[in-house]
Amino acid sequence: MSGHIVVTDMSEAPHILRAVRVAMKEKFGLEHVTVQIEDEELRAEEAPSQI
Q1: Can you give the residue ranges of the Cation efflux protein cytoplasmic domain (predicted)?
Q2: Radius of gyration of the chain (CA)
Q3: Hey, which residues does 4 pair with through a beta bridge?
């Protein structure tokens, strides 16, 4: 699985990444996830996408 997470405080990125990895494993059985963490400014630079 790969995805993006937008955070308000980049200093929290390691904690959030760990929580996402645990959640993906416990809820969906995913052992390998790739997550890009970005702030609002970086997110605004990307083209909108739909899921």
Answers
A1: 3-39
A2: 12
A3: 36
Q: 32 φ, ψ to 5°?
A: -125, 115
19 located within any domain: yes
CA 1 to chain centroid, in Å, comes to 11
- Could you tell me the two tokens for 32? 């390998």
Q: Where are the alpha helices (DSSP H) in the chain?
A: 13-28, 40-44
Asked, for residue 35, whether it belongs to a domain, the answer is yes
| Domains held by the chain: number | 1
The count of C-alpha atoms lying within 13 angstroms of the C-alpha of 34, restricted to the half-sphere facing its C-beta, is: 2
